[in-house]
Amino acid sequence: MTGQASEPSYLQKKLCENRFVVTAELGPPKGADPEYVRERARILKGYADAVNVTDNQRAVVRLSSLASSLIMMQEGLEPIMQMTCRDRNRIALQSDLLGACSLGIKNVLCLTGDHQSMGDHKGAKNVYDLDSIQLISIIKKMRDEKKDFGGKELTKPPNVFIGAAANPFADPFEFRVIRLEKKANAGAQFIQTQAVFDIPRFEKFMELVRSRKLDNRLHIIAGVLPIKGPKMLRNMKENVAGVSIPDSLIQRMEMASDKKEEGIKIALETIETIRKIKGVKGIHIMAVAWEDVIPRIVKESGLIDVISQ
Amino acid sequence: MIVAERKSYEKIERMLKGKRKILIVGCGGCVTVCLAGGQKEVEILAEMLRLGAKKLGIAREVTEATVERQCEREFVLQLADKVKDKDAILSMACGVGVQFVSDIFPDAYVVPALDTKCAGAPIERGIWNEKCALCGDCILDEFYGICPIARCAKNLLNGPCGGSQNGKCEVDRTKDCAWQLIYERMIKFGRLDDLIKLRMPKDWSYARDGGPRRVLKESVR
């Protein structure tokens, strides 16, 4: 379990060899229960090249991303450890990154993090000492220059594949691609996008990405979120900022006799369309608390063929 | 200016439990302008406390005073006679004023009637918005007059988070996204290129994180 520093992650290797990837997502439990993580890891094994482990997503207290990532590794899955800037300052983030790397974690996704007002500890003090872009640049410095942010030498640099998120659906729209370029300039290597429901807007975003040649500098993995019903869609449209959900999609879900089946069908159609968009190097399936649908989606979409594990 | 808001009557009543002789002290500075702790508010609160005492059936003696500014020694010293023999001083100033009165009259029991909210300005009648986070190292020149430290919920320096929608903040949809405003200012000044600038982490040692701050001006010492 000690860091085999020089070997890149499987995700990195595969993307660099220009092979299409599939990533999934796991939300750790609210409790110190490793079995929960193990069970889901077993469900996902063989159906994803790497799996994101969320960091107190939506500001809800859960088993830590670092610990959950390690449990996933014990189950033979490659984790993408998410790190948000909400709860930790530059000292803690650097320390935890070194800790993660010392345990063999090789992918990290840098996020600013949902505001604590979204979660179950609304009275918490937030940190935001860094933003996601600054975190990316610090990790890059640690890895490539072997120095921490303060300029002090590291005995062993963290060998990580640096990821970031992109939201093509938030405003101001024109800023989104510029912000993506900033992430590339800061040192991001792969990108996972917010869930795509609004395909025309995503296509327009990718057009802008290509016009700035960012598709040559970043491995872009497009997000897909299978929906269970119209209520979930409407709830997201109303309460989650930065998602774009066409009304036609909500109507379609409402009309469907078997909502869950329809949700899977929509996810499959979305995958079918967006995997063909130039510059898209992979699909990221987010089905938190519905992980058991992922194998089916991976199989029926044909993505199973791109997974060689 | 410092923007404050009066605490609920119930909270104030709780702070004054067992205190018979009360002096309410207003402040003629910021809190007068933001309609929280000036002479008028002192009169209203004094009246409420007198009525409250009647209702509770307790003896209470409420005296009123308003000084020009509770954060200046010469004005606070004017209270010397009135402070004497009071069981409690209820300061209607910001947190600075409350502590300053307490510093100058160390034997007095001083409690706050207000919650000090922010350094802000009125945007329309009856609405004050936070404008400055008192970070100690002003960066407004880089952001076209919109402070992302004070006005972005996550004090982001490199652009809006994914929660910016229709120009509003995900934390409160009635509030503007500071980065939408910065973006519009950049367009206005033809400086959209600035968007790509990578801004490194802020040095927070000038802010409260560096410990309580002190400002020294040698020329007047």
Structure explained in plain terms:
The complex is a heterodimer of chains A (309) and B (221). The longest helix of chain A has 16 residues, at 259-274. Chain A has a single domain (10-307), classed as Alpha-Beta Barrel (TIM Barrel). Chain A is globular and about 60 Å long. Chain A has 11 helices and 8 strands. Chain A starts with 9 loop residues before the first helix and ends in a 9-residue tail after the last helix. With 309 residues, chain A is of the alpha/beta class. An 8-stranded parallel beta barrel of chain A has the order 1-2-3-4-5-6-7-8, surrounded by 7 helices. Helix content of chain A is 40%, strand content 15%. The mean pLDDT of chain A is 95. In chain B, 29% of the residues lie in helices and 19% in strands. The model of chain B has no long low-confidence stretch (mean pLDDT 96). Chain B has 221 residues and is an alpha/beta fold. In chain B, the strands form 2 sheets. Chain B has a 4-stranded parallel beta sheet with strand order 3-2-4-5, sandwiched between helices. In chain B, strands 1-6-7 form a 3-stranded antiparallel beta sheet. Chain B is elongated. Chain B contains 8 helices and 7 strands. The chains are: A alpha/beta (309), B alpha/beta (221).
